[in-house]
UniProtKB/TrEMBL annotation:
Residues 24-198 form the Spore germination protein N-terminal domain. Its main location: membrane. One of its GO terms (cellular component) is membrane. Residues 228-392 form the Spore germination GerAC-like C-terminal domain. Residues 1-19 form the signal peptide. GO terms for biological process: spore germination. Pfam families: Spore_GerAC, Spore_GerAC_N. It is found in: Membrane. This is Spore germination protein KC. It comes from Thermaerobacillus caldiproteolyticus. It is a lipid-anchor. Keywords: Germination, Lipoprotein, Membrane, Palmitate, Signal. Belongs to the GerABKC lipoprotein family. InterPro entries: GerAC_N (IPR057336), Spore_GerAC-like (IPR008844), Spore_GerAC-like_C (IPR046953), Spore_GerAC_C_sf (IPR038501).
Length: 402
């Protein structure tokens, strides 16, 4: 009887403490912000652009198989002396509560990035709704507002188009990198590592891209495309890195999953395509004779994807010579990337972090001058070990088999 009474008392006390759905939010009262654009106004204030989902139009467009279901997103803008103020002032224009739990993309205007991105992330980190897994990109030669206006085919939500494009091109091509808010914050606060962020560019005009007819054409008048990599120093955009040097950055950061290396062979340019299917980069650092020295080793495995010259893949000597050429090409890519970063005095590879781990005492002495003095003159030793695992069904290309 006493146990039963005790149980009833505990149950009654629990009922008075627990408040049930005290924090409930009705779906019809929420404005789902899928992307946020950040720019600066002419008078130096922050301008936030919110890309809000129109759920009915997204579902309607999917069911009707095209862009005839209405515009899938709506943009709202608000300005403020800080991001929190801009966010709260946005409620003056939206008939629902601004909700950031589904925000997956942050677009920063190029001019805003040049002034400095550091202050932008404090509000994001403190907001309990906001996910630090949201992807960050920089609008190349554009404002963030202009980029978020563009309507896109295939993925009806422009934010999803940008995110997926970035993720897939990083995985298969290796000249762009998908960086989220948490990583940017870590790099901004790290000693010996600067952020590197992918850029996005607009091909075509803004006026054409924001019209619904842009997604009703087989070839859209305006398209969003992943662009070069942004180099930042002390939180400010200082330069861009492109092409093979951009892929060199991903080699150095151990971010290469798959890519294609083309090499010259027997006086023919880009004659052999080498498909990288597996790669691993290791970095070590040490002090030698009072100077920091970094060693980078890259291991790669891949297949022959294409051959446009006569070549006998059954000959071990030919395979060995090909591997040497591939190793040389990869080494040149990462060296170009390091030289470009040294020009901007920005350690985007985290070589300083590697030195910090290996020799904390020496790092304390040089960390204040690392980017400006030590990193630009840093000796970096690069070694590459690339192997060919498969050459396909033919030992000789069919064009030269007779």
């Amino acid at each position: 009887m006493k146990r039963k009474a005790f149980f009833l008392i505990v149950l009654f006390m629990s009922m008075t403490v627990l408040s049930g759905c005290w924090s409930r939010k009705e779906l019809t009262d929420l404005a789902f912000v899928i992307a946020v654009g950040l720019d600066k106004t002419k008078d130096g204030r922050y301008m936030a652009t919110f890309q809000v989902v129109n759920p009915g139009n997204v579902a309607g467009a999917t069911q009707r198989g095209g862009g005839s279901g209405g515009v899938p997103i709506t943009l709202y803008k608000a300005t403020g002396d800080n991001l929190v103020e801009a966010s709260r002032k946005g409620s003056q224009k939206i008939s629902r509560l601004i909700y950031y739990a589904h925000t997956n993309l942050i677009v920063i205007g190029e001019e805003m990035a040049k002034e400095g991105i550091g202050p932008l992330f404090d509000a994001m980190e403190r907001n309990p709704q906001f996910r630090t897994t949201a992807i960050v990109v920089i609008a190349r030669h554009r404002t963030a507002e202009e980029m978020l206006k563009i309507l896109t085919p295939i993925d009806k939500l422009p934010a999803n188009q940008m995110i997926k494009t970035l993720q897939f091109t990083e995985k298969t091509w290796g000249q762009n990198i998908s960086v989220h808010v948490g990583e940017v914050i870590n790099d901004l606060t790290s000693e010996g590592k600067e952020p590197v962020i992918s850029g996005f560019r607009l091909v075509g005009g803004v006026q054409e891209g924001e019209r619904q007819t842009n997604v009703q054409e087989s070839e859209p008048d305006a398209r969003l495309s992943a662009d070069d990599l942004a180099i930042l120093k002390d939180g400010k955009l200082v330069g861009w890195i492109s092409g093979k040097a951009a892929r060199g950055v991903l080699w150095g950061l151990d971010k290469i999953e798959q890519t294609v290396i083309t090499i010259d062979w027997k006086h023919k340019q880009e004659a052999i395509a080498y498909k990288v299917v597996r790669a691993k980069t290791s970095v070590s650092a040490d002090m030698k004779k009072g100077k920091p020295v970094v060693s980078v080793h890259i291991g790669a495995e891949g297949d022959i994807g294409e051959a446009l010259v006569p070549l006998d893949f059954s000959d071990p000597q030919e395979i060995f010579a090909l591997e040497k050429k591939i190793q040389k090409e990869i080494r040149q890519e990462i060296i170009k990337a390091i030289e470009r970063a040294q020009q901007e005095k920005s350690d985007i590879f985290g070589f300083g972090e590697a030195l910090h781990r290996s020799d904390p005492q020496e790092w304390k002495k040089i960390k204040a001058d690392w980017n400006d003095t030590y990193f630009p003159q840093l000796e970096v030793k690069v070694s590459v070990d690339a192997s060919i695992r498969r050459t396909g069904l033919r030992n000789k290309p069919y064009m030269f088999g007779r």
